[in-house]
Design brief:
The chain contains 7 helices and 10 strands. By secondary structure, it is an alpha+beta fold.
Length: about 190
């Protein structure tokens, strides 16, 4: 018997592979079983549990004080090989600066290199909580036309979630795909 606690699904294994799919319904304590290779849509939906923002976000985000200059920020970003840096004021995240901001707000406008980072940062900082759904994160990104969201919990920066994080997540095989492959590989008897 193979048990996946993540999605509350049990796959009973026979000599020739997975033959029984047992779904445990948490709310009603009913047990439903689909024998052979028949799977109901309800079971497939239970196989995939949408992760939260905290599962995809990047932790250990690079930050810089709002009184620092654009050169100091660029040097730090280059050293750490990142494309963005969160700007803080009194330890509270207040804005974000990306490589694109340097191009549009510093180089294109021929600003001096001693310009304060707070003068070019994108503000207000659009945030999301670590326990929010990925759907909510995607909606915020689309609505605000941004590629990064600061993940904040109790006014503290705990991470950043980016469009790249979504792409990396979507490129992985889902639990459903793996289970269906295992089932469909088995000969029908």
């Amino acid at each position: 018997m193979v048990i996946c606690f993540f999605c509350f699904v049990q796959l009973a294994q026979t000599g020739s592979g997975f033959r029984f799919l047992v779904t445990l319904c948490k709310r009603s304590s009913r047990v439903e079983s689909c024998s052979k290779t028949f799977i109901r849509l309800k079971t497939i939906c239970l196989l995939e549990k949408m992760p939260k923002v905290k599962h995809l976000m990047t932790k250990g985000v690079l930050t810089i004080d709002s009184r620092k200059t654009v050169v100091e920020a660029a040097e730090l970003m280059s050293l750490k090989e990142v494309g963005d840096i969160v700007v803080t004021g009194a330890e509270v995240p207040t804005g974000i600066v990306t490589e694109r901001d340097f191009v549009r707000r510093v180089i294109a406008k021929r600003r001096p290199l001693d310009t304060r980072i707070s003068e070019i940062m994108s503000t207000p900082l659009i945030t999301i909580g670590p326990n929010d759904s990925l759907n909510e994160a995607a909606r915020k990104m689309v609505y605000n036309q941004i590629r990064r969201l600061a993940v904040v919990e109790r006014h503290k920066l705990v991470g950043v979630i980016t469009v790249s994080d979504f792409a990396r997540h979507l490129s992985k095989k889902t639990i459903t795909e793996n289970v269906l492959e295992a089932i469909w590989r088995q000969p029908v008897t």
